[in-house]
Amino acid sequence: MQLPIQITFRNFPQSEAVEARIRAKAAKLEEFHPRIMSCHVVVEELDRHRHQGKQFSVRLDLRVPGHEVVVDRDHHEDIYVALRDAFNAAGRQLEEVARTQRGDVKTHEPPRHGKVSRLFAQEGYGYIETADGSEFYFSSDNVVGQAFDRLQSGAEVQFVADVSGKGRQHATRVSAGKHHPPGG
């Protein structure tokens, strides 16, 4: 951790045992993301007159390059259970941030719209043209369901664009029928 951890106790006295548990849990978070810049933990005993017995709430505010992870867990009567739940949630969020930063999370391209510009039904392939003039190859294997046999030149389609390693554009998951482009 680049900055020392900040621990704040509210509405109850500072506890060395709780503080030691927080420091151990915070150190373990670096397994999920190695570049934690700061960590602020607030442990609060909630107002007693609303509940039977003590209730504890844990809030974590972590900063990593380009992101802030905030965990504000519901209260629990056992402070150690509240800490465990909060740090487990923070670990999951940090893991997701690290995965995204590494590029491991696949982002899905929104479907595009176009019309079949050329169709070679006997050969099992065709081309889709979009409003901006781009052209995409597709084969009968890319058409959803058994709709390839019903396609005709000029038919409106929706598809997911893909670019091969050689720079060729092709369409995957082509679905035929009336589709309305966004904003249209």
CATH architectural name of the largest domain:
2-Layer Sandwich
Count of distinct structural domains: 2
The poorly predicted ranges are none
- Helix/strand class: alpha+beta
CA distance, first residue to last residue: 50 Å
Q: Order the strands across the largest sheet as they lie in space.
A: 7-6-5-8-9
Helix content: 10-25%
Largest sheet properties: 5 strands, antiparallel
Order of helices and strands: EHEEEHEEEEE
Indicate the CATH class of the largest domain. Answer: Alpha Beta
Q: Figure out the total of helices.
A: 2
Gross morphology is: elongated
CATH superfamily of the largest domain: Ribosome hibernation promotion factor-like
Strand content: 25-35%
Structure description:
The radius of gyration is 27 Å and the shape is elongated. The chain has two helices and nine strands. The strands form two sheets. Strands 7-6-5-8-9 form a five-stranded antiparallel sheet, with no helix packed on it. It has a four-stranded mixed sheet with strand order 1-2-3-4, covered by helices on one side. It folds into two domains: 6-102, Double Stranded RNA Binding Domain; 112-176, OB fold (Dihydrolipoamide Acetyltransferase, E2P) (Beta Barrel). Helix 1 (16-29) runs parallel beside helix 2. Helices cover 21% and strands 34% of the residues. With 184 residues, the protein is of the alpha+beta class. The longest helix is centred in the middle third of the chain and has 24 residues, at 79-102.
